[in-house]
Amino acid sequence: MSLRHALLGVIKDTPLTGYDLVRHFQGTVGFLWSAPQSQIYPELRRMESEGLIKAKVAPRGKKAQKRIYSITDAGMLELRRWATDFMPLPAQRDPIVLKAAFFDLAPIEAVREQLRAHIAQFQWRMEQWQAREDAIRERRAELVEVWLSRQPVEEHEHIIKLKIHALEGLIGRAHAEICWARQGLALCDEIEEQRALAQLQNGKAASAGG
């Protein structure tokens, strides 16, 4: 249940309201595991009912209230268990690669459009991941710094390196996806050139036969 553990990973750093949790989620583990607000709040309620987090009710303004969530000992134990346990690789499910297997059914320009969008999407993601990596490396990542402040100083560099390693995996994947899509665009050009040449040759043959 990766969303649950992603949320525990954010709340472990500092107590947060639901609103602040959503904001910090998108700017931290949201780079690794995307989840809409509509999934986060129900999961928080389930986690609270199971004792993984607890909520303190505090006033918000004159009449309203807010719930401030913090991780419990049970929640920290579950997060450590999840981080320790071996996770088998998930089954391969890539919708774009699946679609690519049937590109021969589509016009070349439609294939190009899909591949260009793929490049643009992964370039954007890579920039986001790189910015997050830079923030961690330069000690500008707010919640990471909160977590480090509670850890032994001699472990700080190790913690930072491990967190950067996760992002480097995503950045490497983005490079590979962009390279794959660019190869696809080059293949489209090659196929189009070969088709044009074949059409020209067929036209010449037809003229000579006539």
Verbal overview:
The protein has 210 residues and is mostly helical. It has two domains: 83 residues, Orthogonal Bundle (Arc Repressor Mutant, subunit A), CATH 1.10.10; 115 residues, no CATH class. 68% of the residues lie in helices and 9% in strands. It has eight helices and three strands. A three-stranded antiparallel sheet has the order 1-3-2. A hairpin with a 3-residue loop joins β2 and β3. α6 runs antiparallel to α8. The longest helix is centred in the last third of the chain and has 54 residues. The chain starts with a helix and ends with a helix. The model has no long low-confidence stretch (mean pLDDT 92).
Brief characterization of the structure:
The protein has 210 residues and is mainly alpha-helical.
So what's the overall shape?
elongated
Number of domains: 2
Q: How much helical structure, as a percent, in the residues?
A: 55-70%
Q: Describe the biggest sheet? A: 3 strands, antiparallel
- Read across the widest sheet, the strand sequence of neighbours is 1-3-2
- N→C terminal distance: 70 Å
Strand coverage percent: 5-15%
What's the gyration radius in Å? 25 Å
Helix/strand order: HEHHEEHHHHH
Unreliable spans? none
